[in-house]
Amino acid sequence: MDDQKPVSDWTTDFNIFDAEYTKDPSPVWNDLRERCPMAHTDRFGGMWMATRYEDVQALVRKVPELSNRQPSLSPMRPEADLLADYHAHMLPPISADPPEQIPQRRLILPFFTPKAVELHRPFTVKLCNDLIDGFIDKGEADGAADYAQQITPRVIAHMLGIDTTRADQFVEWVRGFVEFGVADIELRSRSRRDIMNFFAEEVAARRARPSDDYISQLLLKELDGVPLTDAMVINMCLLLLTAGIDTTWSSIGTSLWHFATHPDDRRRLAGEPDLWPTAIEEMLRLHAPVSIARIAMEDVEHDDTNFARGDRLMLNLPAANRDPDVFECPDEAVLDRRKNRHVAFGIGIHRCAGSNLARMEMEVALQTWFERIPEFELTDPDAVTWAAGQVRGARNVPVRF
Ligand code: HEM
Question: How far is the CA of 108 from the centre of ligand 1 (A)?
Answer without folding.
Answer: 12
